[in-house]
Every structure is written in C-alpha cells, then in structure tokens.
Amino acid sequence: MQDSGIQVLFQGTNFLRLLEGLLVSLRISVISMGLSVALGIPFGVIMTSKNRVIRFFSRIYLEIVRIMPQLVLLFLVYFGAAKHLHMNLSSGAAAVIVFTFWGTAEMGDLVRSALISIPVHQYESGFGLGMTKIQVYWYLIIPQTIRRLLPSLMNLLTRMIKTTSLVVLIGVVEVVKVGKQIIDASRFTIPTAALWVYGMIFLMYFAICYPFSRFSAKLEKRLKD
Predict the structure, then answer these.
(1) What span, in angstroms and rounded, lies between the C-alpha atoms of 108 and 8?
(2) Is the CB of residue 96 less than 8 Å from the CB of residue 32?
(3) Rounded to an integer, what distance in angstroms lies between the CA atom of residue 40 and that of residue 109?
(4) What is the separation of C-alpha 173 from the centre of its chain, rounded to a whole number of angstroms?
(5) Which pLDDT belongs to residue 143?
(6) Domain boundaries, position 57
(7) What is the CATH number of the domain that holds 202?
C-alpha cells in the first residue's frame, strides 16, 4: 500500500487542499445556480410572450448560449472585460457571471417548456373563477410549473457543478487546479500521483452529483405515477 502511490493523497495537507478546492467549485455552482433560478423564472415567463420581437430576442439569447462553448464565454468575460472595458474582474466573479448567463438561458427555456405544457383549461378555469392574471399564475400555474421543473432543475445543477471544472483555465484555484499542483509537486517521487489524485477528484464529483441524479430520477418517476 505504501508503494502504490495512494499516500500522495494524505501527505501534508493534500487531502484538505482538495476539499477546499471542491468547496470553491461548489460555491461558484451554488451562487450561479441561485442567480440562474432567480433570473431564469421571469425570463421563461417572458419567453412565452406572444410578442414576436420579444420571442425573437429571447431565442437569439438562448441560441448564443447553446452554440457558444462555456470556455469561450469565460475567456470573453475574463480577458475581454479587462481589455475592452478596463474592468479587472476576479476569476471567481467572471466565472459566476458566465455560469449565471448560461444558467439563466437554460432555466428560462425549462420554465417556458413547463409553462406551455400546462393545459389551457387550467388558465380558463382560473379566469372563469374571476381570478386576475397574476392570481392565476400565482395560485394555479406557478405551483404546477415548479412541480414539473424540479427534475430538470436537478439535472441543470449537476451539469453546472461538473462544468465549473473549466474555471481552472482562467486561474480559479478549484479542485482540478489543486490536484494539478499536487501532481506537479509529486511527479518525481510518486509517478502514479496523477492516477490517485484524479481518481479522488472523480470520487468527489461522483459523491456530490450522484445523489442529485438519483433524486431527479425519483422525482421524475413520482411525477409520472
């Protein structure tokens, strides 16, 4: 066991540093996800508008987010803001902006899909009872929309957690960056360090994302039943 290379994980503060790097990834994911939910819900409502101009610009935004790789967006915000807007954004702030930009578009599309999937008679029943448009949405449509959204929301969260590994390329010291530092420091003394370090990073991501995936699957099954 001593010669297998696993000791690289427990030398000094290596394991603690990996956990701290993981917390950085989670902090970026949770902040971005919270902002994406807050902004994505009204954006999804806007996307259901009958106004063609609003729908056109909403579609443009959504397509840009889907076509443009997140890595390019990260570089545009981090380096582009510094060069053209003279804003020295921290790498963490740039990451939150990009993932919120991406998450808001995805969340908005999920909300739009959930809204249009609700039968028309739900709206008509509310108006037939004398409710205003706000009351119909607040008491009838939004509760049903949230119920339909939850499985997709869990999937979006796990995607966001995994995608935050890209922030290493703009200098955020998250778990992958810490892992590389440990491997670089041990490459001469422990040749198999990369195997153990990246294996541990895989297990950390798995331990976080798997419960969300299972929860999402159970929710989806329960909604079908």
Answers:
(1) 44
(2) yes
(3) 8
(4) 18
(5) 82
(6) 5-224
(7) 1.10.3720.10
Structure tokens at 96: 């939150």
Report residue 184 CA to chain centroid gap.
29
Q: Give Cα separations from 146 to 63, 64, 77 (angstroms).
A: 24, 26, 31
- Total number of domains in the chain: 1
Residue 155 token pair: 């999937």
Contacts of 177 (CB under 8 A, 6+ apart): 21, 168
pLDDT, position 225: 61
Furthest-apart CA atoms within the chain: distance in Å: 76
199 to 15, 158, 159, 205: CA distances (angstroms): 13, 19, 19, 10
The residue with tokens 């954006």 is 43
As a whole number of angstroms, the distance between CA 134 and CA 56 comes to 25
Tokens 């915000």 belong to residue: 77
Task: Fill in the DSSP letter of residue 73.
Answer: H
Task: Specify the pLDDT at position 11.
Answer: 86
DSSP structure class, residue 171: T
Mean pLDDT by 10 residues, the chain (225 residues): 75 92 93 94 88 91 89 89 77 92 93 87 84 85 82 87 89 91 88 92 93 81 69
pLDDT of res. 178: 94
Question: Is the pTM value of this prediction over 0.90?
Answer: no
